[in-house]
Amino acid sequence: MMTPKIADFLARNRPRTPCLVVDLDKVEENYRHLRRALPRAEVYYAVKANPAVPVLKRLCGLGSRFDAASIFEIEDCLAVGAAPSDISFGNTIKKADHIARAHRLGVGLFAFDAAEELDKLAEHAPGARVYCRLLVDNEGAGWPLSRKFGCSARMAADLLVRARDSGLVPHGVSFHVGSQQTDPGRWEAAIARAAMVFTDLRERGVELGLLNLGGGFPARYRDSVPGIDAFGEAITEAMHRHFGNAMPETLIEPGRGIVAEAGVLESEVVLVSRKDPDDEARWVYLDIGKFGGLAETMDESIRYDFATDRDGDPMGPVHIAGPTCDGADILYEKTAYRLPLTLKAGDRVRIDSTGAYATTYASVGFNGFAPPSEYYL
Amino acid sequence: MMTPKIADFLARNRPRTPCLVVDLDKVEENYRHLRRALPRAEVYYAVKANPAVPVLKRLCGLGSRFDAASIFEIEDCLAVGAAPSDISFGNTIKKADHIARAHRLGVGLFAFDAAEELDKLAEHAPGARVYCRLLVDNEGAGWPLSRKFGCSARMAADLLVRARDSGLVPHGVSFHVGSQQTDPGRWEAAIARAAMVFTDLRERGVELGLLNLGGGFPARYRDSVPGIDAFGEAITEAMHRHFGNAMPETLIEPGRGIVAEAGVLESEVVLVSRKDPDDEARWVYLDIGKFGGLAETMDESIRYDFATDRDGDPMGPVHIAGPTCDGADILYEKTAYRLPLTLKAGDRVRIDSTGAYATTYASVGFNGFAPPSEYYL
Lengths: 377, 377
Hints:
2 copies of one chain form a homodimer. Chain A is an alpha/beta fold. Chain A has 10 helices and 18 strands. In chain A, strand 10 (210-212), helix 9 (228-243) and strand 11 (249-252) form a beta-alpha-beta unit.
């Protein structure tokens, strides 16, 4: 989002493009808003969304906890002063030596979704609290998580019993309704399934304490999405309905929901062209594309909003692509976009809500192009 | 390809995974083979396929020329001793100041496919030789180039006349039949279209000298592909048929065809799991995935071949995924793959023919994971 601070910075400095500018006050505002919307849930910021030191520092100062996808992200959190007890090793896919390293560093909460992972945890993080990820439906998500993560409820229950029997603490279950989830109602079915696992395990003598509600909280891109309060209400109601008075601790793992709207990518038009004089649609090539950070345009899943200095001028249809010699480096060819007819090479184009995922997906240097520079204000 | 040199290196050093090991002798062998298959064509190595210094050095020593996608790739080529006159700035999408820098460095051959690009070239590289890229059909390609590049034949002819009128040298036309093109017959229609542009321009007083046949020469992954000689024959025949005795100079831009089969990615199994005890298919999670370099598995386009130390054991169906917390980081879910039933976490898995594109597509550190290490033997 183009906050006054970002607008001033861009106007005063005219930094080289492509670059990402993030307003940390907006990060803080989003964090506080999420806390208010779900006051009972601990917030574990999903570091993968934007692991930049200034973001981690600001959130750490606000008392946020952290959901880490790798031992390297754990080390990044510790480096900004996070307590090991405030970090969850949330990736269900972990190398044995990374588990051991996290355990030595004092991390005590781990995700898993498979027997082999549980065996690794029992051996390399004895006594740790573990939670099992359930496979749930991702319909309604802009960036679905598919079947890669989680296991069936039946398997989860068996694995949590096995966790207890192998010296781990079977602490709870988790799920993820899919990133950029725009339907607040989607948490309900997942919460219901989780509640059944709690009941099943209680009957088998295992008392779970934690429900990890995952992330998925959407950001506003081109199309509007329900506000975070709608998600808070839907989740709170569903928790009451399915857990009643036996309410477990809950945690959420927002990433995109905290940082996406805090960032703006400034890019430059490299070329505007037509394939034939009779074509109505133009091709607009930017100096950032799918391999410079905008990987979430894959299958045109995330539809960004573009702004230019010529936005008052008459508009016409465009396809939008990146600067590399790669046919896959197209941002939008099927989604109908329109940009000013006066747009030309050298013009600046601002891409809104790019504070999440736009820097870490960037390639090391595909076609020789360096990743975008980053500024945190 | 697992050459004896690569096998020895892996056995002796057991390098940390994930890592790419490239046999430079195999690079040289592929280069020589291509030269023999198309003796009349100059070879411009497509640097983007693998811009590692040892690859550029070896090819430079063999007399290869270079197809650069950016000013940065041009500087990499010059740094290993390539002459500016042996470099083509092959990207049709170039910033004005990058054109000027290339021109100052002595590069004199540029691609374009649009009026605005031509104007930039006329202003910033006056007198340069330019060639216009034609839009052609990419059917049969494993990694299609779509409609992102090129323009219609009619527009190309008009632009080449305009090139002459603006002080540039209208030197020729180019096309690209799509990367990993497995049908040698696909060049014919493109060559026919190019020949018509040559004729059209001759009638308008412009004599073109160059036909750039592009790249697209395939590598052997899981499925076999026709040998390079079949492509050489098909192209040579088509050139005779459509150009007769008025044969222009030709050049090719192989990237994948030179380096892919020279490399092996060594990775490690992080987890093998089932989603439910009744599932037949297992999920195999490797320490490299779509965001660690294997981006060409997008839509399961490029289907790699996997080898393990347990390959004699009974096999079963698998889905294969990368190590990140991202639902899109799946290599193969629809394509039927089978791996040994005995496979488990910690086992090594070798991914064949990964010398092209597997390093440059790698993200800077998605989920905290560094790009694969690289070894050139």
